[in-house]
Amino acid sequence: MGAQTVAGNWTTGYTVTLTGRQIFNVTVQYTKPSTYNVTRVTATNLADQSSQISFDSTQKQAIGVALANSTVKADISGMAYFVGFANSQVNRSVSGYWVQIGQVNGYRIVGVLVNSDLTDVLKVVTST
Length: 128
Fold this sequence. Notes:
Blueprint lengths: L2 E7 L3 E7 L2 E10 L3 E11 L3 E5 L3 H12 L1 H7 L4 E10 L4 E9 L5 E7 L5 E6 L2
Antiparallel strand pairs: 1-2, 2-5, 3-4, 6-7, 7-8, 8-9
């Protein structure tokens, strides 16, 4: 599965590093009517990878509004997290900023829609 380390914070920026990752390739042979046989399994190690995440002043304002929201606070309580994304969202029905908060070494994601005035949270969506 590998590991993820995150250094920094949303105000100064993050360095996200992924280590110990692998890709598994499984070859399966199908025989009619319903037999599946695994004929080969290989694992390939992937190189470690680091990336930088930083935000401009408008994005930081949206992130601050998102993180101050009581629902968001409850959703990330006790969770090591980082902000992976903050950008404008415009469509026919709503405009604002989407902020994506991810769990370090986990799968939980909290998506937050902040209004275009950057003053209030319109929607919070959480995955588990």
